[in-house]
Design goal:
- This protein is α/β, with parallel strands linked by helices.
- The chain has ten helices and seven strands.
- It has a seven-stranded parallel beta sheet, with no helix packed on it.
- Strand 5, helix 8 and strand 6 form a beta-alpha-beta unit.
- Helix 2 packs antiparallel against helix 3 and helix 4 packs parallel to helix 5.
- The N and C termini lie far apart (72 Å).
């Protein structure tokens, strides 16, 4: 670069910067998937860059109440490989197989939030347990998972800091007790409105979760004020 008074001559311009690398490495993690898809439609070259951004740059994936199965979920699930957080709510097209694809492509997940994903069944939840090694925060609200999932989760991860099983069902009080026995690092537990009787689980939680800060048991069956105190 040369500069002499007002007649400056620059040998390096903005176009010489590694724009693609900057977009993928530094910008993508701050964007939403719909931003990337809007960018993807701009041109053929943008399409390739957007897919690289999905694959290597997107860290946080949120999809709420997207009712149409023709949404670009296939491209998202097949291309994203560096996700740290996923948050899905009211997705009636989220099947076990589609969820398995996303999980197998993203081994670094730390935070999973599923709310009213009622199509998911045992295969999908077992896949989540199998890919839970790095998981620290887990929300499964209004979901249908059973004791098999809780056992598999304990086998793969005993480092959870937060669990939210509010308004979920199909697991037993015995399964819940065994789960909490092997999760000593929990700080935040939400059992609001669960179907099974959790009264006997409270003493297990108190004995095995010394770092507990928050416990939500509002609307739980068989629990009285004296049990909490």
């Amino acid at each position: 670069m040369e500069c002499e008074g007002s007649n400056a001559v620059f040998s390096t311009t903005l176009l010489d910067l590694p724009v693609e690398d900057i977009l993928v490495t530094h910008i993508a993690k701050y964007l939403n998937w719909w931003d990337l898809f809007a960018f993807r439609r701009c041109s053929r070259s943008c399409k390739g860059i957007a897919e690289r951004m999905l694959a290597a740059g997107l860290w946080d994936l949120k999809i709420y109440q997207w009712a149409h199965p023709k949404a670009p979920y296939r491209i998202i699930f097949e291309n994203c490989t560096r996700l740290r957080r996923i948050s899905f709510s009211t997705l009636y097209w989220l099947t076990d197989e589609r969820f398995r694809v996303l999980l197998s492509n993203n081994p670094f997940l730390e935070d999973v939030c599923l709310i009213v994903c009622v199509v998911l069944r045992s295969k999908g939840f077992l896949a989540l347990a199998e890919h839970s090694a790095n998981l620290r925060r887990l929300t499964l609200s209004h979901c249908y998972f059973n004791d098999d999932f809780l056992r598999a989760l304990n086998e793969n991860n005993n480092q959870l800091l937060k669990v939210d099983f509010s308004y979920s069902q199909r697991f037993s009080r015995g399964g819940l007790q065994e789960f909490f026995k092997k999760q000593p690092h929990l700080e935040d537990i939400n059992l609001r409105g669960v179907r099974c009787n959790i009264r006997s689980s409270l003493s297990v939680i108190m004995r095995n979760c010394p770092n507990l800060h928050t416990l939500d048991i509002k609307g739980c069956r068989g629990v009285h004020e004296d049990d909490v105190l």
